[in-house]
């Protein structure tokens, strides 16, 4: 009989316990970063240590505007794919024209925010983790602290603010691109006119459908920023550590986004 | 009680890294206008001591008085004000890579003062002149050599005219000529700007040239704090092994043990 200290069940339980404690620790760290960032955004101007507006705008450009082309391409493709699949399925019932409703609701409530979230996690989340991780390795974070510059105010708050504005805007842009993709394919495939497609889309959609996606994208913006910066701050071990933190940040962000999406979709549709 | 002429006073400082105790009750006084060298081998705790002097860690116990304020007890606001009187030149420079040299030097002014752009530019240029980097303000850190990065880091550290200046391994990775220039710069900062300077290094030649006093650390304890002459003449075996760059008896015994194990 194996020793209790090395028993596989005990080992597995210990591993689960350690992972749970680490997960709770990380969640606490994300929450602390979030609270501190909001403190600097809201209270900074009153204590004469505001978050730099120039940095917010510069990050909005790199995180948001520069991501528009790739968001358009992916969202347009998703719109086309959805239309292909739905027309194929609806043909069974002779209801191909209902594809408009299916694409409109799927894109605005689900695929728009999800594809934008995943894309920004890979693009901006990894960049945040790598940038802050490199600064950590090069003692730039320590340099900021000894100069009396709070790293959360200087690095995290502008990124969080920029993401909270740009990710919902990009999601709206993604919705439009997805709907356009669906419209282009549907008009070619079943001969529905573009104007008729758009008319039906507008009548099928309620403001709440679009807002559901926008609300989720706001949550994704928080997840991507907090996971990216916290992984950056926890870098140890030089360039290899930066690489590991970047990979971990992308994997965690995408996992959290998909899980959060599932949970919120369930509760928002009760 | 803090001595009126002491700029830095460390009392019974104990620090841990995880469960391991790193500094075992350090007591150290550094006088105003003095250059204090902190020396020791790898793992002696000198970089850890510097981190705590800079307020980058919370010690397990003990106190650290900087300019009469115990940084283990003061509020964030008081620490923020105190930091305006502290300058640090990190080992690798730690310049922000996304900013030009001029912007790096201006950064503390931008954060702590309400000076207009033109004045900040002039002040940054003046400090760059002090470290012989006049005209380099538009370049990015990646475009400078190691020695120039260190000098630019000094310019950024002194831009607020701090009373306390800390150097972490200023000569590391530099050729002897550039290293000597940096030594001159440190002496000038003390003489011209009346700064109290703490230098963490293991470069003996540089240390002997600039030190008013030297503190030798070993395995988290202070072996000796004294003048250059007294340190050189110390009969402490570990200090002599450090000064003569030869392994101590403990290390020799460890090597012999390893050789026996591996049959060499």
Layout of SSEs?
The complex is a heterodimer of chains A (270) and B (264).
Chain A: H1 8-43, H2 53-63, H3 68-91, H4 99-137, H5 140-146, H6 151-190, H7 194-204, H8 207-233, H9 238-268
Chain B: E1 6-17, E2 20-31, E3 35-39, H1 46-53, E4 61-66, E5 69-70, H2 76-83, E6 86-89, H3 101-112, H4 117-130, H5 146-158, E7 164-168, H6 176-193, E8 196-200, H7 204-210, E9 213-218, E10 221-226, H8 228-232, H9 237-243, H10 249-262
Parallel strand pairs in B: 3-8, 3-9, 6-7, 7-8
Antiparallel strand pairs in B: 1-2, 1-4, 4-5, 9-10
Helix pairs in contact in B: 3-4, 3-5, 4-5
Explained architecture:
- The complex is a heterodimer of chains A (270) and B (264).
- Chain A is mainly alpha-helical.
- Chain A has one domain (52-268).
- Chain A has helices at 8-43, 53-63, 68-91, 99-137, 140-146, 151-190, 194-204, 207-233, 238-268.
- In chain A, helix 1 (8-43) crosses helix 6, helix 3 runs parallel beside helix 6 (151-190) and helix 4 (99-137) packs parallel to helix 8.
- The longest helix of chain A has 40 residues, at 151-190.
- Chain B is an alpha/beta fold.
- Chain B folds into three domains: 1-85 and 163-233, P-loop containing nucleotide triphosphate hydrolases (Rossmann fold); 96-161, no CATH class; 237-264.
- Helix content of chain B is 40%, strand content 24%.
- In chain B, the strands form two sheets. Chain B has a six-stranded mixed beta sheet with strand order 6-7-8-3-9-10, sandwiched between helices. A four-stranded antiparallel beta sheet of chain B has the order 2-1-4-5, with helices on one face.
- In chain B, helix 3 crosses helix 4, helix 3 (101-112) runs parallel beside helix 5 (146-158) and helix 4 (117-130) crosses helix 5 (146-158).
- The mean pLDDT of chain B is 90.
- At the A-B interface, helix 5 of A face helix 2 and helix 3 of B.
């Amino acid at each position: 009989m194996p020793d209790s200290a090395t028993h596989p069940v005990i080992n597995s339980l210990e591993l689960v316990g350690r992972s749970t404690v680490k997960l709770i620790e990380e969640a606490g760290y994300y929450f602390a970063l979030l609270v501190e960032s909001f403190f600097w955004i809201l209270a900074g101007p009153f204590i004469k240590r505001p978050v730099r507006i120039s940095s917010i705008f510069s990050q909005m450009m790199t995180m948001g505007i520069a991501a528009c082309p790739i968001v358009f391409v992916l969202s347009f493709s998703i719109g086309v794919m959805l239309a292909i699949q739905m027309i194929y399925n609806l043909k069974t019932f002779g209801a191909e024209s209902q594809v408009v409703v299916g694409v409109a609701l799927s894109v605005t409530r689900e695929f728009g925010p999800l594809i934008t979230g995943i894309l920004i996690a890979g693009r901006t989340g990894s960049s945040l983790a790598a940038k802050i991780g490199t600064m950590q390795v090069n003692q730039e974070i320590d340099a900021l602290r000894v100069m009396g510059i709070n790293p959360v105010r200087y690095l995290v708050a502008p990124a969080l603010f920029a993401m909270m504005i740009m990710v919902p805007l990009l999601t709206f842009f993604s919705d439009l691109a997805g709907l356009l993709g669906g419209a282009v394919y549907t008009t070619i495939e079943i001969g529905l006119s573009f104007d008729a497609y758009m008319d039906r889309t507008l009548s099928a959609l309620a403001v709440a459908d679009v807002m559901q996606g926008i609300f989720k994208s706001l949550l994704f913006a928080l997840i991507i920023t907090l996971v990216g910066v916290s992984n950056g701050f926890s870098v140890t071990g030089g360039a290899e550590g930066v690489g590991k933190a970047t990979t971990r940040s992308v994997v965690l962000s995408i996992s959290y986004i998909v899980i959060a999406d599932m949970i919120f979709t369930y509760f928002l549709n009760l | 009680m803090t001595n009126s002429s002491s700029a830095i006073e460390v009392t019974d400082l104990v620090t841990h890294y995880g469960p391991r105790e790193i500094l075992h009750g350090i007591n150290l006084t550094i006088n105003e206008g003095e250059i204090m060298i902190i020396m020791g081998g790898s793992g002696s705790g000198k970089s850890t001591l510097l981190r705590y002097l800079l307020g980058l860690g919370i010690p397990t116990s003990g106190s650290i008085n900087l300019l009469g304020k115990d940084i283990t007890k003061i509020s964030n606001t008081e620490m923020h004000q105190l930091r305006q009187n502290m300058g640090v030149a990190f080992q690798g420079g730690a310049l922000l890579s996304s900013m030009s040299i001029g912007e790096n030097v201006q950064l503390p002014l931008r954060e702590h003062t309400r000076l207009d752009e033109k004045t900040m530019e002039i002040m940054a240029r003046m400090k760059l002149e002090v470290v012989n980097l006049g005209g380099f303000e538009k370049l990015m850190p990646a475009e400078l050599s190691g020695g120039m990065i260190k000098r630019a880091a000094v310019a950024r550290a002194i831009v607020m005219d701090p009373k306390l200046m800390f150097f972490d391994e200023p000569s590391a990775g530099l050729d002897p000529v550039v290293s000597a220039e940096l030594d001159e710069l440190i002496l000038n900062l003390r003489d011209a700007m009346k700064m109290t300077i703490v230098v963490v290094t293991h470069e003996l030649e540089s240390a002997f040239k600039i030190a008013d006093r030297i503190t030798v650390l070993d395995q988290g304890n202070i072996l000796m704090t004294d003048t250059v002459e007294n340190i050189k003449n110390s009969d402490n075996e570990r200090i002599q092994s450090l000064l003569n760059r030869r392994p101590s008896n403990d290390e020799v015994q460890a090597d012999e043990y390893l050789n026996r194990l591996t049959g060499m």
